[in-house]
Amino acid sequence: MPILLDGAKNATKTAPATATFRVKPKMTKHEIKEYLTKIYNLPVKKVNTANFAGKRKRAMGRQKIVEYKYKDFKKAFVTFDDSLKEVEESVAWDRNPGRATEI
User: Fold this and answer.
1) Burial classification of residue 32, based on how many CB atoms lie within 10 Å of its CB (0-12 exposed, 13-18 middle, 19 or more buried)
2) What's the pTM value of the predicted model, to 2 decimals?
3) What is the CA radius of gyration of the chain?
């Protein structure tokens, strides 16, 4: 089950630490929470999810136009417990906005 980290924010005085992950569309909230707590020992408080349709593209050649579509994906918005103040860099996260790295 690959989970890709998309972005993260550290905790502030008013808001807990949060992270955004790209997951497989078939994963449920309970599976995501269980995966993060058992494998990475992260104190997950709440998980929200959103489904996204893959982008449709059109490539124009000399003789014909080829249409294709990227895969559909789901984003998981994870809120961590108050015990986690700082989302560490130990989780491999690429700073390029278009690329996520697998954890």
Assistant:
1) buried
2) 0.74
3) 17
